[in-house]
Amino acid sequence: MNIAATSLYGSGTNRDKSASIQKLSDQVQGQFTDKSGSEVFIAKLRERYPRYIRDQLTVMLNCLAKYTRQDCDKALDLCLSKGLFSATDFKSILSQVTPIIEINEEVEIKPLGTPQTKLMVNIKPNRSDIDVYQNLFKNN
Asked: Is the model's pLDDT at 3 over the cut of 60?
């Protein structure tokens, strides 16, 4: 690798990332009740997506933060029984089984500006005929 490439990519490209990925893996595995099932699921993720394992685990952690442990355990069991080994499959099943409850509150809209600017909102600008502009371009 030449000097320009080293400065462009930095020296961190060759660092060992396995420790931080293992930490993420342990975090995900610790969130489930079924430790052996989560271990199998993560092993399959590593096998299928070795280059994108960090992304897969991050999607799993985001789901685990949004939903209850019980719902996540159900989604994991369903993924294992159906042979679905992807974090996006896990996320889809989780969202289908237990949709996030949205709060339907009325939001009060507060108008901005002074009374003078409120009057200006209803003013329509003058319109020019397009032929005027086309003639200008044709003549130049």
From this structure: no
